[in-house]
Amino acid sequence: MTRYLHFIVNSRDSWHSIVFIQDQAKRELLFWRDNLRSLNGVSFWSSPFVPSKVVFSDAFSTGCAAYIQSSSLLFHRNLSATELLISSTWRELATVKYSLEAFDSNLAGHRVRWNTDNQNVVRIVRVGSMLEELQELALDIFLFASGHNIRLDLTWIPRDQNSEADRFSKVVNIDDYSVHDDVFIHFDRLWGPHSIDRFASSSNAKLPRFNSRFLQSGTEAIDAFSQDWSCDNNWIVPPTTVFGKVLSHMRECKAVGTLMVPMWKFSYFWSLLCNDGVHLNSFVKHWLCPPKRPDLFVAGRAKNKLFGTKAFKSPYLALRIDFLQPERLFPVGFCTSPLGYCSVCQP
Fold this sequence. Notes:
By secondary structure, this protein is of the alpha/beta class. It has 10 helices and 15 strands. The chain has helices at 3-10, 23-39, 81-84, 88-103, 119-127, 132-147, 163-169, 181-191, 243-253, 270-273; strands at 53-59, 63-68, 74-78, 111-116, 151-156, 177-179, 196-200, 210-212, 221-222, 233-236, 256-262, 284-289, 297-299, 316-322, 332-335. α1 crosses α2 and α4 (88-103) packs across α5 (119-127). It is elongated, with a radius of gyration of 25 Å. The model is unreliable at 334-347 (pLDDT under 50).
């Protein structure tokens, strides 16, 4: 907490020079003003450290991951193209920051032994760095741990002892995409306000409340299918492989929400929406076939993803699903397809 103060001292022409106090240095001065009395008296000799939680973390060229030993808690995050251009030390250090924030209450008040196979990360978390981008991450880690009463002990371990975190970091979430913000805003005004985004990540969530595949900062729950959807107006843009499971879960929960689906009439899920092949089932209260637009889907952080890498050409449907009152025989909808009509519009 004196790195930026040293930067200022080293920038002087003489001991009588006037120097400018940058915001980072002000933050350090304020930290010492508020904490000097409580920190004074700490022993020069380290006391025995018996951890109550053990964490392993690692970063790869596509993503980063961490997990708490003897628990089911797993953090994973795709890395963006910009982040991949930064040094491997930055990525490993950022992994500590991101996963620490994600684990949050699970580590609050605990002594945590944090294992990493990057020796630079261990030193930087302990004493900081002369590189500003690394120092900022070290400060974020320090301040977050202090604010949540987390006592961190970073330890270097050989790579072969970090195989689980290494394996998780190589996972690529190909479903890391979302619809364009304008598209969400339109449907939120039409059928909202929606209260929760059921299939999202910390980088693409459309709402403050969201469910994610892996533990991430801000997520309300991992695995949307483990949650009760009945008390929410759900925003649902799921992976294409789980459309059937989504409808089954909504039926079980008697849920209401807006579901985005591609108009793939030969897909397994189409018969679940359209039993007779012509009319949408009665639980679909309204529907909209929006105009085609090349940016309907926005790419996430992953390098390889199902949607978002190029213009989406297939027609898409927004369905207003209501399993609370599924008695309406025919849904009400309208089509703005540039073709003039779509197969759903046929009588």
